[in-house]
Amino acid sequence: MWLMLRGAKASWHHLSYSVLVLCFLAIQGSKSDVLWTANVNYSYVMENKTYWDEGEIGVYGHDSPVDRAYGLVVLPRRRQHHYSPSQCPPHLNFSVPESYNNAWIALIQRGDCPFSDKIKAAAEAGAKAVVIYNNEGNENGVFEMSHPGTKDTIAIMIGFIKGMEIVQLVRSNIQVTMVIEVGRKHGSWMNHYSIFFVSISFFVVTAATVGYFIFYSARRWRHTRAQNQKMKKLKDEAKKAISRLQLRTIKQGDKVLGPDGDSCAVCIDAYKANDVVRILTCNHFFHKNCIDPWLLEHRTCPMCKCDILKSLGIAVSYTDKILQMYFPHRLGKMQITAQLQIT
Ligand SMILES: *[C@@H]1O[C@H](CO)[C@@H](O)[C@H](O)[C@H]1NC(C)=O
Ligand SMILES: *[C@@H]1O[C@H](CO)[C@@H](O)[C@H](O)[C@H]1NC(C)=O
Ligand SMILES: *[C@@H]1O[C@H](CO)[C@@H](O)[C@H](O)[C@H]1NC(C)=O
Ligand SMILES: [Zn+2]
Ligand SMILES: [Zn+2]
């Protein structure tokens, strides 16, 4: 059985290695393709009544810690004589109310400058987190921002419409506070694709392995059966040849029955009258029931080591055949040892 498995095992190792590599690649690929949403809850007090609006409207930036943040919403300071507020450094200043020294969150429009610049400027001004709302025309569209080098500043993106809602409130001098909570993890298209790809590869590899194993086993089985048949034929031939050797029944008064008479070298019993003995080509004789199985196994005369089967014309030993079939290496090794011993 181990012989049968050996070939299949080698290919199995190879295939399972491929599967491992595929899985590893898929995990590597999917890691950077994970996206976290943010639940944003902003609230404000108007006429002694608290209003709030909550929703999974944000997406954490690629380089942002995925963490909770809380604070007062602060807008960039408007530049005088400018129609629109500048949302880019170096004109990015924040109008944090004086005497306010709690956490605050900067709410900035996307604008045209890199996210990193804005986020860094806000963080330097003391913002705990940065919320960037998309430009006009993008309505509710959000995406995962790339902003390398912003360290532990939490940064999320929200849509234009939600951004403007909050901006309007803050501009009306309403204090808006915001809570950013971690939402859900989303695999991107690539991640789903990787899982699909790995599943398909795994299926294909498994199918191929099973197929190969079946093919290999069938071939091995056919080969073994053919060898067994061949050996059986050889053995039958040997039996037939042995049965052609002369038989003799020992009679009363035979000279082998005397006080210093012979005994069978196989069973070491002395011959008795009516024992059937077989006479080999070397003229040695033994009990028929003792020598027949002996010859099938050893080929040679137990007395003189003469190769009886060879002299009967059975050239190749089926015992050698068995060895060749099951232990080809052992046979090779045995020959090598013999050579070593000679020299
Ligand atoms: C949103 O914030 C307000 C004020 O802090 C709070 O009363 C409300 O329960 C929050 N909503 C959710 C869904 O957490
Ligand atoms: C809000 O509450 C305060 C007292 O807590 C009260 O003096 C004030 O009139 C209230 N304002 C409104 C608009 O209800
Ligand atoms: C904004 O910041 C820049 C650079 O620090 C500074 O030169 C400018 O005076 C600030 N503007 C306001 C309105 O504070
Ligand atoms: Zn015997
Ligand atoms: Zn002999």
Can you tell me about this structure?
- This protein is an alpha/beta fold.
- Helix content is 43%, strand content 20%.
- It contains 8 helices and 10 strands.
- It has helices at residues 2-31, 115-125, 160-171, 189-243, 288-298, 308-311, 318-326, 328-342; strands spanning 34-46, 49-60, 69-74, 104-109, 129-133, 154-158, 176-187, 247-249, 276-279, 285-287.
- A 7-stranded mixed barrel has the order 1-2-6-5-4-3-7. A 3-stranded antiparallel beta sheet has the order 8-9-10.
- Helix 1 (2-31) packs antiparallel against helix 4 and helix 4 runs antiparallel to helix 7 (318-326).
- The longest helix is centred in the middle third of the chain and has 55 residues, at 189-243.
- It is rod-shaped, with a radius of gyration of 47 Å.
- The two termini are 37 Å apart.
- Mean pLDDT is 82; it is low at 1-5 and 330-343.
- Residues 47-48 line the site of one 2-acetamido-2-deoxy-beta-D-glucopyranose.
- Residues 77, 90, 93 line the site of one 2-acetamido-2-deoxy-beta-D-glucopyranose.
Give the gist of this structure.
The chain is α/β, with parallel strands linked by helices and 343 residues long.
